[in-house]
Write a structure and sequence with these properties.
two-stranded antiparallel sheet, 9 helices, 10 strands, 19% strand
Length: 281
């Protein structure tokens, strides 16, 4: 299977965008970088505060400064993980043993490493339960800090663990696509790749008019989506939330039928990329 980023190139062409739209990214504010480190965010916050005190001609607007300052402060204090986010965790075995035999005819008991190699959901208090480790709070943890944080926590129970982590986001894709449903993908995926995974829009899909809805309300209209795709922004950089609905309208259809979409979702299994496929990219 091709990676989502490669599939996104073909989807960009379907959206009527230049083939190199993904490569030619418009610079984003530091605060929106996925893996920005805490010291960098703190320095950026200091620059924002300094700019607010001594505004320069041609500098950032007051509204932008205010919004950026609030966003960075919130990110530093609360971290990057929301309720419903999913984490794909892989913990390597320290040796060649893959399991402990429980007896004749009884499947081997999973090792602690195997039990921890799974997907986990962030709960209502920004907490994630890990087998054998307990419930861990992710409040205040940045995405760049997640892997070392979990390595440290797991290291209290497993000696010298090798831990890999990928944050996942679940999105619903509906409308003019061949395979509408609920897709759980890495947070750094491109939206066109998610649409392509759902069937690429099909012959009736109006890809130029894609919108994003949250709780029934449009949070990104077609123009905002086009701009995000053209600048190569990931679904995380677009600030999409778990459960957001990517609506690809059908050219031949009428108004969007929410009842029909709900029925389709219930009949389609969740698509989750395997551990190997995700950790390859």
């Amino acid at each position: 299977m091709r990676s989502l980023s490669l599939i996104g190139l073909a989807a960009c062409a379907a959206l009527g965008l230049p083939g190199n739209a993904v490569a030619q990214k418009k610079p984003q504010p530091l605060s929106h970088h996925l893996m920005v480190a805490r010291p960098e965010l703190e320095r950026y916050l200091g620059q924002l505060r300094e700019q607010a005190l001594t505004p320069k001609r041609g500098g950032m607007s007051k509204d932008f400064l205010r919004a950026e300052t609030t966003y960075v402060q919130q990110r530093l204090a609360e971290g990057d993980f929301r309720v419903g986010d999913r984490l794909l965790v892989m913990v390597e075995n320290p040796g060649p043993v893959t399991g402990v035999m429980a007896g004749p005819g009884i499947p081997p008991v999973k090792t602690p490493e195997q039990q921890l190699s799974d997907t986990f959901t962030v709960g209502s208090n920004q907490e994630v339960p890990l087998p054998g480790v307990g419930v861990l709070s992710l409040r205040g943890v940045l995405r760049s800090e997640l892997e070392p944080f979990l390595t440290e926590q797991i290291g209290r129970y497993i000696r010298d663990p090798v831990v890999q982590v990928r944050p996942l986001i679940g999105l619903a894709v509906s409308g003019g696509v061949a395979k509408p449903g609920y897709y759980t993908v890495p947070a750094n995926s491109l939206l066109p790749a998610v649409i392509t995974a759902a069937g690429g829009g099909g012959k009736d899909g109006a890809l130029n008019d894609v919108a994003v809805r949250r709780s029934g309300h449009v949070v990104m209209d077609k123009n905002e989506v086009r701009t995000a795709v053209a600048t190569g922004r990931t679904i995380d950089e677009m600030d999409l939330h778990p459960g957001d609905e990517v609506v690809v309208p059908e050219k031949t259809g009428g108004a969007y039928d929410a009842v029909k979409f709900t029925a389709v979702l219930l009949s389609i299994p969740i698509s989750l990329y395997t551990l190997g496929q995700i950790f390859k990219h």
